Amino acid sequence: MRRRGFTLVEYTAALTIMVVIAGLASARMSRSALGTRENALRAELATVRTALGNYVSDNQCWPASLSDLTVTRAPDNGFAADGTTTVTIDSRVWRGPYLRQLVNDPISGTSFTYLPGRSGYIRSSATGTDSNGVSYTAY
Question: The pTM is what?
Answer without folding.
Answer: 0.74
